[in-house]
Write a structure and sequence with these properties.
Helix content: over 70%
Oligomer: single chain
Shape: elongated
Distance between the termini: 33 Å
Largest sheet: none
Strand content: under 5%
Number of helices: 10
Order of helices and strands: HHHHHHHHHH
Keywords: Membrane, Transmembrane, Transmembrane helix
Radius of gyration: 21 Å
Number of strands: 0
Length: 245
């Protein structure tokens, strides 16, 4: 038997990654990406020096950027589903001889890998920024930099815990918008908002200095993966039973 049929998830996963690279080549070329990257670095260095001269920089607040990473991945996951309709490849995608759950799971893992790579890149830039800010500052010490790294541990771990759920939520919302149940999309946002509010009132988003119980982080990771699994199954069911082509 063809190895591709023996490991359909792996085959589709690699296919999704390949499509991503090919789509990337069709966009901004490598030279312009380098221009944008180095322009960003230069601007960041200039701003860092400026703020160090004018203000007393508190490095720990830079980690607040982490809270935006899952939202970024959430949006990219929605676009991953919409891409099939935008590129008019949805019929081709759905005719693969695999269960809908396998098709969705392949997109999930491909986006999760992309999300982790993107998150790690952003986190590395944050650390480099903190190191440079410490180097050019007259008030920050190496001890401050180590404290800065330590204070980022929890937001980093929470980001990694939230990424699967962000991908799963993006895939289900992207799929829902292409089905006969699209009028139910406002309910998704209502449930999402209520969940966010309840989790906040329950203390999930207390200041990081109060986040000392490891079991909370473990519960967040387990809950994230369980809910993600449910969302993948639900997205698969929507593609199978409620698709509106």
């Amino acid at each position: 038997m063809d190895a591709r049929h023996e490991q359909p998830l792996k085959t589709l996963f690699l296919h999704e990654l390949k499509r991503r690279r090919e789509n990337g080549r069709k966009g901004i070329n490598a030279q312009w990406r380098l221009v944008y990257f180095f322009s960003f670095i230069v601007i960041a260095m200039i701003l860092t020096i400026y703020f160090n001269l004018i203000y007393h920089v508190q490095l720990k607040y830079i980690w607040n950027i982490c809270w935006g990473i899952p939202w970024m991945i959430f949006g990219l996951s929605i676009s991953l589903i919409h891409r099939e309709w935008r590129n008019e490849t949805v019929g081709w995608w759905l005719t693969f001889p695999y269960p809908r759950s396998t098709l969705v799971a392949a997109k999930f893992w491909a986006m999760l890998v992309r999300g982790v790579s993107l998150a790690c890149s952003i986190l590395l830039l944050i650390i480099v920024f903190g190191a440079f800010a410490t180097l050019v500052s007259s008030t920050l010490s190496f001890g401050d930099f180590l404290a800065f790294i330590k204070s980022g541990l929890i937001p980093i771990l929470l980001d990694l815990a939230a990424l699967p759920l962000a991908v799963g939520a993006g895939l289900i919302l992207g799929t829902l918008g292409r089905t006969k149940l699209r009028p139910a999309m406002p309910l998704f946002w209502i449930i999402w908002g209520l969940s966010w509010g309840l989790s906040g009132s329950a203390g999930w988003f207390e200041p990081l200095s109060q986040f000392k119980i490891p079991i909370e982080l473990v519960a967040a990771i387990i809950g994230s993966w369980l809910l993600t699994w449910i969302l993948i199954l639900l997205a698969s069911w929507l593609l199978e039973k409620k698709l509106d082509l």
